[in-house]
Amino acid sequence: LNNPSQVLASVPDERKPKAEALISELKSGVNELQELAQAKDKEKVKEKRADLLNLVGELEELMVEGFPFEVPEQYS
User: Fold this and answer.
1) H-type helices in the chain, by residue range?
2) Is pLDDT above 90 for 68?
């Protein structure tokens, strides 16, 4: 996340605080991931990568202002 302001520009104002927290968490997580990769801890790298991808998904959800379809109740 070299330019978080570009990401935040896509987030509605009421969700910006949550988005800023996620961006901060992602930045520190990427640093931790780099340390794990340097330590060659493959299992922890996989776990941290999955955690970071979940955070990216949460951040993307904050950008969505309305879904174009209804999610069937059994999947919501």
Assistant:
1) 4-8, 16-38, 42-63
2) no
